[in-house]
């Protein structure tokens, strides 16, 4: 065996060409972080194709993930078993002849289709009594410190020591695609700041995006508000406060958000999927953290700045989706002027891409 010296992952049987399926977490940020698992598998087995199960929401991300052969788009409903859909997915998986499936979620439902498909090796952590569905059961998940450690450990041999560093997620967006997108949206070619004001969980949303947009626009920068349909009302508020240099680019297609983050000169985001997208692309990214821990939830990719309140709060980090203490001070005590100043510094220091 050879060893990839960068992270100490042994390269195994180069003659093995059996495809591998990853069933990842389907939240956008978690899906992006799942690309680390792809990279570990590709280093371990360079000639085994890697596919991802994906929802229609996350499907555009697969097009920009190096090392992924294809995404299998299959929307399983939340909250119910959906036997017919599970059987249909199993038939699709069986036809593709997978040798290994990595089931990252600990749920019983996530393991059904790989088992029905008869995939010979089904790897996952113990959870929800999945005996029989997972036939290469792993233990000790709770001892692993971070979400990425729990996921990427499944791509290593059972019992293997974790490497000192994991390979970072990558999203490669062609420059010509970015240029076409900017032209189609009438966005010109100048520097722009992309704002990601949304997140899953109200407590993770920074309070002062409208004021920050106004300050950045007054300093001569174009500002784009990026997000999904749930951020439309907030985007309109930001545009109304920020003025004519601020554009609402929210919409229903995640590809639009990916291209916006790729085109931006700097991204400012809550702890959200868009933060992980921007960082994986390589756009200088400012992550604003309040109730969540950057150690646990920041991207593996370097951030241009990690913005935290200077106030000392006993409740932080609480990891709650809704603030129940201190009137959301972990976010309210981060002023718009501070974020705008940091963004201006990041823009000045950024290397042109």
UniProtKB/TrEMBL annotation:
Source organism phylogeny: Bacteria, Pseudomonadati, Pseudomonadota, Alphaproteobacteria, Hyphomicrobiales
Catalytic activity: an L-alpha-D-Hep-(1->5)-[alpha-Kdo-(2->4)]-alpha-Kdo-(2->6)-lipid A + ADP-L-glycero-beta-D-manno-heptose = an L-alpha-D-Hep-(1->3)-L-alpha-D-Hep-(1->5)-[alpha-Kdo-(2->4)]-alpha-Kdo-(2->6)-lipid A + ADP + H(+)
UniProt record similarity statement: Belongs to the glycosyltransferase 9 family.
GO biological process, one term: lipopolysaccharide core region biosynthetic process
GO molecular function: ADP-heptose-lipopolysaccharide heptosyltransferase activity
Cellular component GO terms, alphabetical: cytosol
Keywords, in A-Z order: Glycosyltransferase, Transferase
Pfam family for this entry, one: Glyco_transf_9
Enzyme class: transferase
EC annotation from Swiss-Prot or TrEMBL: 2.4.99.24
Organism: Bradyrhizobium lablabi
Protein name: lipopolysaccharide heptosyltransferase II
């Amino acid at each position: 065996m050879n060893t990839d010296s960068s992270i100490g992952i042994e390269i195994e049987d180069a003659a093995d060409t059996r495809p591998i399926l990853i069933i990842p977490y389907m939240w956008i940020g978690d899906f992006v972080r799942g690309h680390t698992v792809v990279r570990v598998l590709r280093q371990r087995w360079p000639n085994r194709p890697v596919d991802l199960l994906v929802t229609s929401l996350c499907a555009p991300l697969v097009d920009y993930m190096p090392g992924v052969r294809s995404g299998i788009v299959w929307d399983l409903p939340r909250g119910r078993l959906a036997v017919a859909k599970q059987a249909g997915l199993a038939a699709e998986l069986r036809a593709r002849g997978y040798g290994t499936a990595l089931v990252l979620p600990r749920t019983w439902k996530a393991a059904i289709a790989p088992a029905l498909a008869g995939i010979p090796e089904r790897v996952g952590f113990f959870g929800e009594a999945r005996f029989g569905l997972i036939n290469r059961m792993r233990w000790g998940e709770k001892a692993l410190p971070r979400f990425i450690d729990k996921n990427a450990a499944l791509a290593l041999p059972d019992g293997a020591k974790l490497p000192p560093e994991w390979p970072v997620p990558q999203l490669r967006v062609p420059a010509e695609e970015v240029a076409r997108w900017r032209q189609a949206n009438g966005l010109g070619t100048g520097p722009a700041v992309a704002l990601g004001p949304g997140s899953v969980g109200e407590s993770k949303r920074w309070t002062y995006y409208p004021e920050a947009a106004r300050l950045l626009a007054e300093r001569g920068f174009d500002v784009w508000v990026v997000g999904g349909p749930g951020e439309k009302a907030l985007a309109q508020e930001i545009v109304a406060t920020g003025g004519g240099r601020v554009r609402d680019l929210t919409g229903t297609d995640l590809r639009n958000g990916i291209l916006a983050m790729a085109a931006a000169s700097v991204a400012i985001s809550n702890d959200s999927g868009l933060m992980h997208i921007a960082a994986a692309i390589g756009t200088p990214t400012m992550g604003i953290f309040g109730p969540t821990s950057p150690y646990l939830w920041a991207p593996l990719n370097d951030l241009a700045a990690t913005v935290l309140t200077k106030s000392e709060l006993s409740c932080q980090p609480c990891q709650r989706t809704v603030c129940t203490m201190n009137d959301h001070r972990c976010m309210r005590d981060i002023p718009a002027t501070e974020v705008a100043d940091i963004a201006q510094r990041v823009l000045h220091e950024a290397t042109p891409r």
